[in-house]
Design a protein that fits this description.
The complex is a heterodimer of chains A (about 120) and B (about 110).
Chain A: E1 3-7, E2 10-12, E3 18-25, E4 34-39, E5 45-51, E6 58-60, E7 68-73, E8 78-83, E9 92-98, E10 105-106, E11 110-114
Parallel strand pairs in A: 2-11
Antiparallel strand pairs in A: 1-3, 3-8, 4-5, 4-9, 5-6, 7-8, 9-10, 9-11
Chain B: E1 4-6, E2 19-25, E3 38-43, E4 50-54, E5 58-59, E6 67-71, E7 75-80, E8 89-95, E9 102-103, E10 107-109
Antiparallel strand pairs in B: 1-2, 2-7, 3-4, 3-8, 4-5, 6-7, 8-9, 8-10
């Protein structure tokens, strides 16, 4: 069974950093591109970043470019999102999702709240 | 960036009826390989989004054949036949033709 379990969220002050993790199981992690997608409270979905299976290709939304870094460790079956210079508008539920152009499995999400 | 615009459903929809959700893109989603890079998702209340269709009309694994995607390069429809209680939620279209990927604002389906 495919499982994606996010962790690392919490309450953080504006300007600080946080690192999210997504532990994958039930499939060959190194064969799949992965994504981070977020959802602000009561709002719609917003794509954040994507990384190819071997980390050769990485893409970011303009809203996070230069502040967030997506990475992965295929030996640990884990996807990461390093978030720096956090802003109130980054407050959201962050999902990791498997897949290239068809994100077919999603985790339950991890909440990040940016507030003083 | 490609802008995705979703239509509104005349809610609530009677159980057993059909519902069609529309989505429009500001640019053609047809890639040079001939595929149309448009996904549909359903997010039930309190749950993570579920992939319904990709490449505009290919159903994801395990998705009921009551869901069917269609469209052109810039105008898309997700049809839900014989609507059931478990179909309630917010439907999102997403373009993956080019980065940055973008989602529509969502269309809520409520059942009567």
């Amino acid at each position: 069974e495919v499982q994606l379990v996010e962790s690392g969220g919490g309450l953080v002050q504006p300007g600080r950093s946080l690192k999210l993790s997504c532990l994958a199981s039930g499939f060959t992690f190194s064969n799949y591109g992965m994504n981070w997608i977020r959802q602000a409270p009561g709002k719609g979905l917003e794509w954040v970043a994507s990384i190819s299976s071997s980390s050769s290709y990485i893409y970011y939304a303009d809203t996070v470019k230069g502040r967030f870094t997506i990475s992965r460790d295929n030996a640990k079956n884990t996807l990461y999102l390093q978030m720096t210079s956090l802003r109130s508008e980054d407050t959201a539920l962050y999902y990791c999702a498997r897949g290239g152009v068809a994100p077919d499995y999603w985790g339950q999400g991890v909440m990040v709240t940016v507030s003083s | 960036d490609i802008v995705m615009t979703q239509g509104v459903l005349p809610n609530p929809v009677p159980s057993g009826e059909s519902a069609s959700i529309t989505c429009r893109s500001s640019k053609s989603l047809v890639y040079k390989d001939g595929k149309t890079y448009l996904n549909w998702f359903l997010q039930r209340p309190g749950q993570s989004p579920q992939l319904l269709t990709y490449w505009m009309s290919t159903r994801a694994s395990g998705v009921s054949d009551r869901f069917s995607g269609s469209g052109s390069g810039t105008y898309f429809t997700l049809k839900i036949s014989r609507v059931r209680a478990e179909d309630a939620g917010v439907y999102y279209c997403q373009q993956v033709r080019e980065y940055p990927w973008t989602f529509g604002g969502g269309t809520k389906l409520e059942l009567k």
